């Protein structure tokens, strides 16, 4: 699910943005050295989020310290020597040469930005962890609002699948009766055309074989049970519900495929098509459920 959260603690500001993903992926941007410590940031993220692609931006507003100042004197000396040689060769007046030398500190590499090396800064990390936790709490609240809307849609799709399954269940007796009628009509036509005698036992045996091949009572029962389990997971918001819902939807799809292939009836196939279309929507939604 998508969401956004931001928070500030002392001189540290943290922003968290989340988009849909079946797995958890954390990317850290911002002030050094935090992009190098995604694993530490991810430990905090996992306390709040299990799924999604998260971009965590950490900004530390640091005051420069005297020990942070470090000129590259060797490079500066090399620049000044080359500048002096160029000024002498061009026979520039001294005041022009002074202007050239004044800009030497702005040359690349002379006054590099202070960088932090080593581990996480002990003086900043508690504030970063606190701000990150607050930002994730706000993110979680936004995702919960989205989750409520998603749950309502999942329940509506569940109801639609249940209605279609009820129509299939109600139509199944007519499938066997219709096949029996078609068999009798073909037998009557064969008797009329060729004078062939067909016993009633043969007709009954053929209808019985058809009924056995197209018996989908077991598939209907299992699909109905999966629907009940699906609704329970959506309503209770069980831990790791997303993974469980994915499995249940997978099993529902398997039962629907078997139902469509065994029924052998146009009306049933239409209802199966509607169920498959609804399950496809469900499958896309549950990939974003934690």
Structure notes:
Helix content is 63%, strand content 11%. The chain folds into three domains: 3-65 and 129-139; 70-106, no CATH class; 143-286. It has helices at 38-45, 73-90, 94-102, 125-194, 200-213, 217-236, 241-263, 266-286, and strands at residues 3-9, 12-19, 24-30, 52-60. The protein has 290 residues and is an alpha+beta fold. The radius of gyration is 36 Å and the shape is elongated. Helix 2 (73-90) packs antiparallel against helix 3 and helix 4 (125-194) runs antiparallel to helix 5. The protein has a four-stranded mixed β-sheet. It starts with a strand and ends with a helix. The longest helix is centred in the middle third of the chain and has 70 residues, at 125-194.
Name a few traits of the molecule.
4 strands, 290 residues, 3 domains, 63% helix, alpha+beta
Gist?
This protein has 290 residues and is α+β, with helices and mostly antiparallel strands. The chain has helices at residues 38-45, 73-90, 94-102, 125-194, 200-213, 217-236, 241-263, 266-286, and strands at 3-9, 12-19, 24-30, 52-60.
């Amino acid at each position: 699910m998508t969401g956004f959260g931001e928070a500030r603690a002392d001189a540290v500001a943290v922003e968290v943005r989340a988009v849909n993903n079946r797995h958890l992926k954390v990317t850290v941007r911002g002030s050094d050295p935090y992009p190098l410590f995604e694993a530490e940031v991810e430990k905090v993220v996992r306390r709040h989020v299990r799924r999604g692609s998260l971009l965590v931006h950490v900004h530390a507003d640091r005051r420069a310290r005297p020990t942070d100042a470090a000129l590259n004197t060797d490079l500066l000396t090399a620049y000044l020597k080359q500048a002096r040689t160029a000024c002498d060769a061009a026979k520039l007046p001294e005041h022009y040469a002074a202007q050239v030398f004044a800009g030497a500190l702005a040359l690349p590499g002379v006054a590099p930005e202070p960088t932090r090396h080593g581990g996480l800064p002990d003086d900043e990390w508690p504030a970063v962890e606190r701000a990150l936790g607050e930002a994730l709490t706000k993110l979680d609240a936004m995702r919960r609002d989205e989750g409520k809307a998603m749950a309502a849609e999942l329940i509506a799709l569940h109801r639609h699948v249940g209605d279609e399954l009820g129509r299939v269940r109600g139509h199944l007796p007519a499938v066997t009766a219709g096949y029996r009628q078609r068999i009798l009509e073909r037998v009557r036509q064969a008797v009329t055309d060729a004078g062939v005698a067909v016993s009633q036992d043969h007709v009954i045996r053929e209808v019985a074989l058809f009924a056995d091949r197209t018996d989908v009572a077991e598939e209907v029962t299992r699909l109905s049970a999966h629907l009940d389990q699906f609704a329970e997971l959506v309503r209770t918001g069980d831990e790791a519900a997303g993974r469980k819902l994915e499995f249940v939807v997978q099993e529902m799809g398997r039962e629907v495929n078997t139902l469509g292939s065994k029924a052998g009836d146009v009306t049933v196939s239409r209802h199966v098509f509607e169920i498959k279309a609804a399950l496809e929507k469900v499958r896309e939604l549950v990939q974003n459920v934690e």
